[in-house]
Prior knowledge:
Strands 3-2-1-4-5 form a five-stranded parallel beta sheet, with helices on both faces. It starts with 6 loop residues before the first strand and ends with a helix. Helix 1 links the parallel strand 1 (7-12) and strand 2 (34-40). Helix 2 (51-61) packs antiparallel against helix 6. The protein is α/β, with parallel strands linked by helices. It has six helices and five strands; from the N terminus they run E-H-E-H-E-H-E-H-E-H-H.
Amino acid sequence: MNTTIRTAIYPGTFDPVTFGHLDIMHRALGLCDRLIVAVALNPEKHPVFTSEDRVRFIVESIQEDLERIEVLPFETLLTEFAARHQANIIIKGLRAVTDFEYELQMGLMNRNLNDTLETVFMIPSQEYFFLSSSFVKEIARHGGDVSKMVPRCVEKGISKITS
């Protein structure tokens, strides 16, 4: 009997987390025993929310899965982060062909840096296929309703930055 724990990492900026991200997180639990949601601290992306806010939004949104999901900030190479947390799977969400081209290159580079890592591409459920954090921020900036796109905690956080 194999008792090795399969640990996966779902990295992203999550600025902010959307129902599409949460969909991938919940479905990724079917592929691993433990999921680490790795919140990237990448200042080049100019996030609207602090890393603390982004981590908090995710934690508040996944309360029922906290036994199997851990949310951590990171600013190292993903391969180093994976090795430190004994992860052997990287989960990446894909919405479009352009996502695939970029993520394929990234997956190949990660495998080059650490050949024990497997990248698994997941597509969101159909109802979230159109959804992106960038769209959410743009809609919110113009006073649009984002309640069907993000958890309530994010909706509250967005209202604070757009008022």
